C-alpha cells in the first residue's frame, strides 16, 4: 500500500529507510543528468547512424522536449494516484529501453519517437523525484533536494567524459553544454549547427559510441531495480491519510502561488540555460577573447554553478529556503547588472560570470523547499514547476538567439540576463506576500479567541461587580444592626429610668430582647411571680 512506507518510516528503521530513498533518488538523478547530457557529444554519430546530416535531424530535440513536457504533466497526475516508487521504477525502465534501442536505430522517425519516450520518462522522474523527497523528509527536505540536483549536475558533467572515452579519445567536445540545466532537456541546437560542417564519423566510431548509451542504460536499469526493491518493501512515503490531512494546510492563494512560481522557474531556468549556451559566443564576439579564453569563461560559469550546488547541500541544513533564495536573487541581480553595463571591464566580466553561475545553483531546489513550507506540493503542482522550467529553457534561449541575429551589435545575452534577473527579483516578494496571507480558518480562530477573551473579561467584570454589591449589602446590614442596637439601648435606658432602684448599668447587663426567652419547665405565671417579687423588693 502507498501508506505503508510512511508508517514504516516512523518506526525503528524509519531513518535508514528514508536515507535509502534519498540514495535511490540521488542515483536516479545522476542517471537523469547523464541521459540528457550524452546526446550532445554523440549527436554527429546519431546523425550518421540514420544516414542524415546533423542539421537535418534537429527535430529529435523537439521530440524529446515535447515528451519531457508531456511526461511531467502525466507524471504529476499519476503520482497522486499510484505508488511513487513503482512509478519512478517504471519510468527508469522506459529510459533504459530507449537508451538501449538508440544505437541500433536506423530511421530518423523512429529515433524521434525513442527520444520522445526517453523525454517522457525523464519528465516523470524529475517531477516524481522532487515530490517524493518532500514527502519523505517534510520540513527537513532542503539538504536532500539540494543533493538531488547536485547529482543531476554531476551526471551531466560525467556523461560527455564517458562519451569521449567510448569514442576512443576523438575530437574534444564542448563539455560545458552538458550542464546547461538543472532539471530538464538541454538544447543543443548551437552544437548541432556548429557540427553541420563536420564530416561524418568513421565506422569504428559508429560502433564505439553506442557503448556510452549501453553503460548509462545499464546504470539506470540497476537504479530501477533498487526502486522495485523499495516498492516490494512497501516503501512509498505516500501516506494517504497524511495527504488528506494536509489538504487543510493549503495556502489561501494556493493556485496563484503555484502559477507565480511557475513563472519564476520559467525565467530562472531560461536565464541559466541562455547564459550557459551563449557565453562562449559572447566572449569571442563582444569581449574579443580567444577560443581558449572563451572556453575558460564558460567553464568558470558551470564550475561555480556545480561547486555552489554541492555546497548548498550543507548550507541548506543551516539556512532557511527563503534566506537562500534572497541571497541568490541579490547575487544574481548584482552580477547580471555588472554583465549588462560593465562587461567591457575584463575583470568584471570574469567576476560577474562566476557570481552569476553561483547565484543560479540553489534557486530551483530552494524554491521547491520554500513553497512546501506554506502549502501542499503534490504531483500536479510539482509538474507545473518542471513544465515552467522546461518552457523557459525552450523559449528564452530561442528568443535571445533570434534577437541576437537581428541585432548583431547589441549584446542581447547580457541584457537578457539582467531582464530575467529583474523579473525574478520582482516575483519573489509577491509570492512571499501571498504565501503569508492568513487563511480563513486562521481568521476564524483569531475571531473566536477574541470572542473568548471578551467573554472572560465580561465574566471577570461581572464577578467584580457582584463582589462590590455584596460588600455594599454587608455594609448596609452592619449599619442597620448598629442602628438597631442604638434604638434598643435607648429604649432600655428609658425603661431603666422608670424602674426605681435599678441602675442603667445593671439593666444594660440584662438580655436586650423585647420578649425574653421562655425556659423549659417555667410557666408564664412563674415568670410574672418573679417579676412581682423583684418589684416588692
TrEMBL record:
This is MFS4B protein. Residues 463-472 have a biased composition (Acidic residues). The chain crosses the membrane at residues 16-37, 57-79, 86-103, 109-135, 147-167, 210-232, 253-280, 349-371, 383-403, 415-435. It comes from Nicator chloris. It comes from the Eukaryota. InterPro entries: MFS_trans_sf. The keyword Transmembrane helix applies. It is found in: Membrane. Belongs to the major facilitator superfamily. It is a multi-pass membrane protein. GO terms for cellular component: membrane. Its main location: membrane. The gene is Mfsd4b.
Amino acid at each position: 500500500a502507498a501508506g505503508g512506507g510512511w508508517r514504516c518510516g516512523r518506526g525503528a528503521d524509519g531513518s535508514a529507510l528514508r536515507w535509502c530513498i534519498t540514495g535511490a533518488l540521488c542515483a536516479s538523478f545522476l542517471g537523469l543528468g547523464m541521459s540528457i547530457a550524452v546526446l550532445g557529444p554523440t549527436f554527429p554519430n546519431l546523425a550518421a547512424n540514420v544516414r542524415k546530416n546533423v542539421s537535418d535531424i534537429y527535430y529529435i530535440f523537439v521530440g524529446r522536449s515535447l515528451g519531457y513536457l508531456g511526461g511531467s504533466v502525466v507524471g504529476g497526475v499519476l503520482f497522486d494516484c499510484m505508488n511513487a516508487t513503482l512509478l519512478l521504477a517504471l519510468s527508469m525502465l522506459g529510459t533504459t529501453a530507449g537508451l538501449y534501442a538508440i544505437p541500433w536505430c536506423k530511421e530518423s522517425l523512429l529515433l524521434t519517437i525513442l527520444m520522445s519516450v526517453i523525454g517522457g520518462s525523464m519528465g516523470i522522474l524529475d517531477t516524481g523525484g522532487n515530490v517524493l523527497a518532500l514527502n519523505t523528509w517534510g520540513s527537513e527536505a532542503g539538504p536532500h533536494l539540494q543533493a538531488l540536483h547536485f547529482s543531476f549536475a554531476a551526471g551531466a558533467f560525467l556523461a560527455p567524459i564517458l562519451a569521449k572515452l567510448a569514442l576512443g579519445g576523438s575530437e574534444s567536445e564542448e563539455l560545458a553544454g552538458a550542464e546547461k540545466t538543472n532539471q530538464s532537456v538541454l538544447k543543443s541546437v548551437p552544437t548541432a549547427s556548429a557540427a553541420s560542417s563536420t564530416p561524418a564519423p568513421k565506422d569504428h566510431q559508429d560502433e564505439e559510441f553506442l557503448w556510452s548509451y549501453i553503460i548509462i542504460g545499464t546504470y539506470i536499469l540497476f537504479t530501477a531495480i533498487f526502486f522495485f526493491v523499495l516498492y516490494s518493501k512497501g516503501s512509498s512515503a505516500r501516506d494517504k491519510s497524511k495527504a488528506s490531512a494536509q489538504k487543510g494546510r493549503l495556502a489561501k492563494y494556493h493556485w496563484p502561488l503555484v502559477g507565480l512560481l511557475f513563472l519564476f522557474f520559467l525565467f530562472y531556468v531560461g536565464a541559466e540555460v541562455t547564459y550557459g549556451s551563449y557565453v562562449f559566443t559572447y566572449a569571442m564576439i563582444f569581449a574579443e577573447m580567444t577560443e581558449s579564453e572563451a572556453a575558460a569563461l564558460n567553464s568558470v560559469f558551470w564550475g561555480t554553478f556545480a561547486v555552489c550546488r554541492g555546497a548548498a547541500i550543507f548550507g541548506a541544513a543551516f539556512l532557511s529556503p527563503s534566506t537562500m533564495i534572497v541571497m541568490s536573487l541579490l547575487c544574481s541581480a548584482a552580477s547580471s547588472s555588472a554583465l549588462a553595463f560593465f562587461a567591457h571591464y575584463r575583470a568584471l566580466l570574469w567576476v560577474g560570470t562566476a557570481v552569476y553561475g553561483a547565484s543560479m545553483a540553489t534557486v530551483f531546489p530552494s524554491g521547491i523547499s520554500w513553497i512546501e513550507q506554506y502549502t501542499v506540493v503534490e504531483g500536479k503542482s510539482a509538474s507545473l514547476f518542471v513544465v515552467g522550467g522546461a518552457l523557459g529553457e525552450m523559449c528564452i534561449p530561442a528568443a535571445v538567439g533570434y534577437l541576437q541575429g537581428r541585432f548583431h551589435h547589441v549584446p542581447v545575452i547580457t541584457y537578457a540576463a539582467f531582464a530575467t534577473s529583474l523579473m525574478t527579483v520582482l516575483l519573489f516578494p509577491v509570492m512571499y506576500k501571498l504565501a503569508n496571507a492568513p487563511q480563513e480558518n486562521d481568521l476564524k480562530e483569531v475571531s473566536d479567541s477574541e470572542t473568548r477573551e471578551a467573554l472572560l473579561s465580561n465574566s471577570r467584570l461581572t464577578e467584580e461587580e457582584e463582589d462590590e454589591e455584596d460588600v455594599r449589602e454587608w455594609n448596609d446590614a452592619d449599619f442597620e444592626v448598629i442602628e438597631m442596637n442604638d434604638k434598643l439601648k435607648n429604649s432600655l435606658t428609658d425603661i431603666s429610668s422608670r424602674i426605681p432602684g435599678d441602675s442603667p448599668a445593671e439593666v444594660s447587663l440584662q438580655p436586650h430582647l423585647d420578649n425574653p426567652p421562655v425556659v423549659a419547665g417555667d410557666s408564664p405565671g412563674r415568670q410574672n411571680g418573679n417579676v412581682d417579687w423583684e418589684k416588692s423588693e
